[in-house]
């Protein structure tokens, strides 16, 4: 009691009256040092770095390489004997035909038919009676079989029309609305980027929360004179920086190695990713509030992120999915990130394509954060 | 002057377990106060209620004249808390850890580094906290609790799991902290630790404080008990009991833990003569009462950490 006089004067002097200015400064320094602590910890955690950055990149490289340049369905056709119609096509027309068809000439019809059955050739053509051209195809790949019939039909139609010695009355001028170079990488990049950002933000928030609660770091923060706002905002900063790092790495790799072509307003992906990160963090916050152990947090996050990624078209387009599945995907924030990111990155979408999505994502984040706040627990017991 | 801590009738129940059952005490400023008890006695819950981490079901607590619950940002800079498990950020070095925690209190890196030096961890400043030994982690945890120069320090079983050398080093540090005028509250399940460090000790069991006083005074109250022990295996317990009863010795406890045969008694003379007659004096030790005997007398059972 008496000894305390030696140190006590120091104590009030340090914290004294000027709570205003000094208080503000303290909060700023606490914010930065807390953010720095989390960033350093993440940088040194190899597993985290792998799952947040390298793993999605491996997927991009894998899918990017597999689908590189396999866009036009090139068909292999075997021609048995002479077929007058095809033999007569010359010059520019011939070159055009060769772009979509490779015609191999053979004589043995039975052997060739067997090869079509096995899939070595997509189809067989031969001269039928009169002007008939006989086509025997395999339906193993229905899309290709359909395309092949279309091509051959148009060749026959064109020849018929030419035989009438009349100029064509109707001409179809079909052009794709997207950039003509729309390759799989154009939808893979936004899709996989969305998946990567979702993984990073959901797992980051959920695991940090549970880890801090279990290791009692949360209690230490609670016993320090810093506000919940400081803690939350520094965690948001860390998640945003992570997401933006993922975005830049993805865009650089996809444009430099896989021929991704960015359209004019591609930079809109940055605010989009930022808003989506907040939405994903709120999912992670909810998972972390409910989960008691890190294993549980991991499991809950995985159960949410993986189906969400499939349903939102992160790995393949959902256009062919049944209607009810597409409806389910519409409650998921990743769905909106992926479609809007596709729009601004590769389809020339503008601010008006991104703004409604950003608003929706922020609303989603606000609602889920509100629920997480209700369920939040400082302590285990 | 207001007391550093005043607790009045605090109770906390977890389901069927009454963890804290009506605890009241006062700690004066500058005091080194210990809460002693076996695991599960309710020490940690009591600490959590004092720190303001937990709201008691019943009762009232004041630290430095202020209520710790609900969270009071005015009070927080004046108290320092060390945790039973070392609560650090992942993958940070000792220096980064203490600088981060210090920054929450507006304390700069210089003072944080000085605190690291103070607990003898300057040479471990660049070591990641998960690679530190138990003693180093505990010292870092204490340094983090002290970096902002608090008046009131809570230490929850700071020496649990440390080797004897590390414990003694830590005791020196804790004594210094108290000598600087800080009020220190310590929980421990080590009787010797409470005896060596504390000005005043409360003995706690089953959520209740059984007795409070200076360790020396507590021991003096029961100093008529003497504990005699000899190496085990010289005399079977049953035979010893027969002989001691026959000799009219007043035996409080008699037990053989396979290392030594121990007898507590108020009258050592007949016990010693029985042992001498049986030629069972190898490893003889006779000592006065300790806090262990105080605990035994208060609870009617052996102290088990």
Description:
- The complex is a heterodimer of chains A (381) and B (305).
- Chain A has 381 residues and is mainly α.
- Chain A has helices spanning 10-15, 19-44, 46-66, 84-87, 91-100, 109-118, 142-163, 184-214, 217-222, 228-257, 269-290, 294-311, 323-329, 333-346, 351-375, and strands spanning 75-80, 101-106, 123-127, 133-137.
- Chain A has a 4-stranded mixed β-sheet, with helices on both faces.
- In chain A, helix 8 runs parallel beside helix 11.
- The radius of gyration of chain A is 31 Å and the shape is elongated.
- Chain B is of the alpha/beta class and 305 residues long.
- Chain B has 10 helices and 13 strands.
- A 6-stranded mixed β-sheet of chain B has the order 5-6-7-3-8-9, sandwiched between helices. Chain B has a 4-stranded antiparallel β-sheet with strand order 11-12-10-13, covered by helices on one side. A 3-stranded antiparallel β-sheet of chain B has the order 2-1-4, with helices on one face.
- In chain B, helix 2 (94-103) crosses helix 3 and helix 3 crosses helix 4.
- Chain B is globular, with a radius of gyration of 23 Å.
- The two termini of chain B are 36 Å apart.
- The relative contact order of chain B is 0.14.
- The mean pLDDT of chain B is 89.
- Chain A binds chain B through residues 1-8, 10-11, 14-15, 22, 25-26, 29-30, 32-34, 36-38, 40-42, 44-45, 211, 215-217, 219-226, 378-379, 381, and chain B through 1, 14, 28-31, 51-54, 71, 73, 76-79, 81, 83, 85, 87-92, 96, 99-101, 103-106, 128, 144, 149, 151, 179-183.
């Amino acid at each position: 009691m008496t000894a305390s006089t030696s140190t006590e004067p120091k104590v009030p002097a340090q914290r004294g009256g000027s709570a205003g200015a000094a208080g503000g400064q303290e909060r700023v320094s606490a914010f930065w040092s807390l953010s720095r602590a989390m960033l350093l910890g993440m940088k040194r955690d190899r597993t985290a770095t792998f799952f947040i950055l390298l793993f999605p990149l491996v997927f991009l490289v894998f899918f990017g390489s597999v689908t590189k340049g396999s866009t036009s369905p090139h068909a292999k056709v075997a021609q048995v004997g002479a077929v007058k119609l095809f033999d007569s096509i010359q010059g520019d027309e011939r070159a055009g035909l060769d772009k979509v068809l490779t015609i191999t000439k053979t004589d043995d019809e039975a052997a060739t038919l067997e090869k079509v059955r096995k899939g070595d050739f997509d189809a067989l053509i031969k001269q039928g009676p009169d002007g008939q051209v006989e086509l025997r195809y395999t339906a193993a790949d229905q899309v290709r079989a359909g395309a092949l019939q279309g091509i051959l039909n148009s060749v026959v139609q064109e020849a018929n029309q030419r035989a009438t010695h009349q100029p064509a009355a109707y001409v179809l001028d079909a052009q794709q609305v997207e950039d003509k170079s729309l390759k799989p990488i154009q939808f893979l990049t936004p899709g996989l980027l969305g998946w990567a950002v979702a993984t990073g933000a959901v797992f980051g928030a959920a695991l940090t929360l549970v880890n801090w609660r279990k290791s009692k770091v949360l209690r230490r923060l609670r016993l320090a004179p810093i506000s919940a706002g400081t803690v939350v905002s520094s965690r948001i900063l860390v998640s945003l920086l992570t997401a933006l790092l993922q975005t830049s790495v993805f865009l650089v790799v996809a444009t430099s190695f896989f021929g991704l072509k960015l359209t004019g307003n591609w930079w809109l992906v940055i605010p989009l990713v930022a808003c989506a990160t907040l939405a994903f963090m709120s999912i992670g916050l909810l998972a972390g509030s409910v989960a008691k152990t890190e294993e549980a947090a991991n499991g809950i996050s995985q159960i949410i992120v993986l189906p969400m990624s499939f349903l939102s078209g992160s790995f393949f387009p959902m256009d062919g999915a049944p209607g009810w599945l597409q409806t389910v995907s519409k409650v998921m924030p990743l769905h909106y990130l992926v479609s809007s990111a596709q729009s601004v990155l590769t389809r020339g979408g503008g601010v008006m394509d991104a703004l409604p999505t950003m608003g929706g994502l922020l609303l989603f984040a606000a609602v889920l954060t509100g629920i997480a706040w209700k369920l939040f627990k400082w302590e285990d017991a | 002057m207001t007391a550093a801590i005043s607790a009045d009738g605090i109770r906390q129940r977890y389901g069927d377990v009454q963890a804290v059952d009506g605890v009241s005490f006062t700690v004066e400023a500058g005091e080194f106060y210990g809460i002693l008890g076996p695991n599960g006695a309710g020490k940690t819950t009591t600490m959590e209620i004092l720190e303001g981490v937990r709201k008691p079901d019943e009762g009232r607590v004041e630290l430095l004249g202020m209520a710790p619950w609900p969270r009071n940002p005015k009070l927080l800079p004046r108290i320092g808390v060390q945790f039973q498990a070392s609560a650090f950020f992942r993958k940070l070095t000792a220096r980064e850890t203490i600088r981060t925690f210090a920054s929450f209190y507006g304390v700069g890196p210089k003072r944080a580094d000085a605190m690291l030096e103070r607990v003898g961890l300057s040479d471990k400043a660049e070591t990641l906290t998960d690679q530190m030994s138990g003693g180093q982690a505990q010292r870092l945890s204490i340094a983090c609790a002290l970096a902002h120069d608090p008046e009131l320090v809570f230490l929850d079983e700071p020496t649990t799991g440390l080797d004897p050398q590390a414990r003694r080093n830590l005791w020196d540090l804790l004594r210094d902290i108290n000598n600087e005028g800080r009020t220190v509250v310590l929980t421990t399940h080590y009787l010797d630790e409470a005896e060596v460090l504390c000005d005043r000790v409360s003995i706690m069991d089953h959520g209740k404080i059984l007795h409070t006083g200076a360790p020396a005074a507590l021991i003096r109250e029961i100093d008529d008990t003497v504990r005699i022990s000899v190496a085990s295996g010289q005399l079977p317990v049953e035979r010893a009991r027969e002989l001691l009863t026959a000799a009219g010795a007043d035996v409080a406890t008699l037990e053989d833990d396979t290392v030594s045969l121990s007898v507590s008694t108020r009258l050592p003379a007949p016990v010693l003569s029985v042992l001498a007659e049986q030629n069972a004096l190898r490893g003889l030790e006779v000592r006065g009462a300790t806090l262990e005997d105080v605990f035994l007398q208060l609870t009617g059972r052996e102290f088990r950490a």
